[in-house]
Amino acid sequence: MMKPGEKIRLQREDKKLDLKETAQRTQLDEKQLARIEAGEVSPSLGTLIKLARVFGVRLGTFLDDQQETGAVVTRKGENGPTDNMNAAGSQPRENLAFSSLARQKSDRHMDPFLVEVEPGVEYDTGSSSHEGEEFMYVLQGSVEVTYGKEKYELKAGDTIYYDSIVDHKVKAINNEKALLLAVVYLPV
Questions:
Q1: DSSP secondary structure string, 89-157?
Q2: Which residues lie below 8 Å from residue 170, measured CB to CB, with a gap of 6+?
Q3: Are 186 and 125 in contact (CB under 8 A)?
Q4: How far apart are CA 10 and CA 187, in angstroms?
Q5: Do the Cβ atoms of 142 and 176 come closer than 8 Å?
Q6: Contacts for 2 with CB less than 8 Å, ≥ 6 apart
Q7: How many CB atoms lie within 10 A of CB 17?
Q8: 62: enclosing H helix or E strand
Q9: C-alpha atoms less than 13 angstroms from C-alpha of 138 in its C-beta half-sphere
């Protein structure tokens, strides 16, 4: 299975972009982008979304395992973490683990994930902002979602749906790990 960094490099080369130009278009640090492509660090979801927009591809392009056009079933235990990452991709400490629930499905328009949000020391992970929409359902624990200037405390069974162009971030609260079902829609 090819890692996201390798897929990013292949997309960049296919689009005939160098690292510097890609970094400028995505507003990412060129050295950080090189480290992502080399597999030294995992890209954040926000970083993958920015790259997908610049390359004109689906977000799932960087996460897909296979190209299945029919129905895709992911069985319990088959969806290990795709990547651990922080919200903005700028900190070495990881607080989110994303498990893709449809990485085999080609030509999808939504990307469903199980997201583990670790509690602990607060890191300034920054917020994310990108085109599209997001939906989250809290399966376990509690989270605080910052959406623009508003803060929402969500507990198990609560949901939130928002336009992801507005700055947003998620953190675990009450000193316990949270588990979310998140669906990201990113128009291509």
A1: S--SS--EEEEES-TTBTT-SEEEEEEEE--SS------B--SSEEEEEEEESEEEEEETTEEEEEETT
A2: 87, 96, 115, 117, 136, 143, 144, 145, 146, 180
A3: no
A4: 21
A5: yes
A6: none
A7: 16
A8: none
A9: 23
- The two tokens of residue 170 are 């998620």
Q: Which phi and psi angles does 56 have, rounded to 5°?
A: 70, 35
Amino acid at 185: Y
Token pair of 76 as six digits: 């319990």
Residues 48, 30: Cα–Cα separation, whole Å: 15
How confident is the prediction along the chain (188 residues), in pLDDT tens digits per residue? 667 888 899 888 888 999 999 999 988 899 999 999 998 888 877 788 889 888 888 777 777 655 556 677 777 776 655 544 444 444 433 577 777 787 776 667 788 888 888 887 454 456 777 778 999 999 999 999 999 999 999 999 999 999 988 999 899 999 999 999 999 887 76
Whole-number Å distance between alpha carbons of 63 and 31: 22
In the chain, the amino acid numbered 91 is Q
Residue found by looking up tokens 């359902």 in the block: 137
Taking the complete model, does pTM exceed 0.85, yes or no? no
- Residues linked to residue 84 through DSSP beta bridges, in sequence order: 97
Of the candidates 32, 30, 2, the residue with the CA atom closest to the CA atom of residue 18: 30
- Residue with the two structure tokens 């990013």: 8
